[in-house]
Amino acid sequence: MDKLDLSIIIPCFNEEDNVQSFYKKVQNVLWGGADRNNINEVYFIFVDDGSKDNTIKEIKKLQANNKNIKLVKFSRNFGKEAAMFAGLRESKSTLTCIMDCDLQDPPELLLEMIEKYKNTKGKLKLITAKRKDRSGDSRFRAFFSEVFYKINNILSPIKLESGVRDFRLIHRDALDCILQMNEYHRFSKAIFEFVGFQKEIVEYDYIDREQGASKWNFIKLFLYAIEGIVSFSTIPLKIITLIGFVIFVISSIYGIHIIIDTLAFGNDVKGYPSIVTLIAFFGGLQIMLLGIIGEYIARIYEQSKNRPHYFIEYIS
After folding, report:
1. Which of 8, 90, 207, 289 has the most Cβ atoms closer than 10 angstroms to its Cβ?
2. Domain 4-233's class?
3. C-alpha span between 152 and 147 (Å, rounded)
4. What are the structural domain ranges in the chain?
């Protein structure tokens, strides 16, 4: 197989403590590994997602010694999805890899991914990293993460495996297809599955962050989960229709019962508590269902405006 050129995309948000150690470790692994003779060029594409610390300064220090390091600086924080998309657009290599700067994505696994790609003589187009278990997460977070994947796989035709990461190796053929998906609300885990191609998963043990704290809290993850389900499934809308039909049938039967009961036995005033309970229940249900419909309408509205996913302050 010909020598490979590789681009590594690194989304960064306040990662000043990790930039140097990340770069050194990846360099040592790539150029000290058995795959050295098969790697022609390695390009580092750092995408700064509106960092407020010295992340930019640390990246520029690296640029002074390596012409293959590119910095894409956003004008503000647009989120990790936008940062990954920008990096994918900048990659011109045959192979592209997405890695987090916190070293929770083990660089050694990248060598294994490249080896798998070579062993299939280029037939593999997507190789994805997956955590073996939820160690390192709180029980609360681990439970709701598993719930999300189960719900997603019931509601969406795009099936996701629990524990998969954004850390993956992407061949140019798959990358070109991914870039054609220009939707405003991006959920990359599902997009990578949606494009198809031959895929494989490599598993690894959980690794703690090198420095700093995760930028993802429970609320952000919850909103991201809703994003994922709504972006790739219309089944919630079908469920709303089914719920409405069931309520209509039950209400009709109950209405017929009331008419017969009134004609046969008169119309005593009774059932006040049950009526209040039903009104409160169906009122809350209607608000919830309107909220689901609103999520879809909001996405149509935002997509129709055709705004850019991000703005770049400069590229160096």
Report:
1. 8
2. alpha beta
3. 8
4. 4-233, 235-304
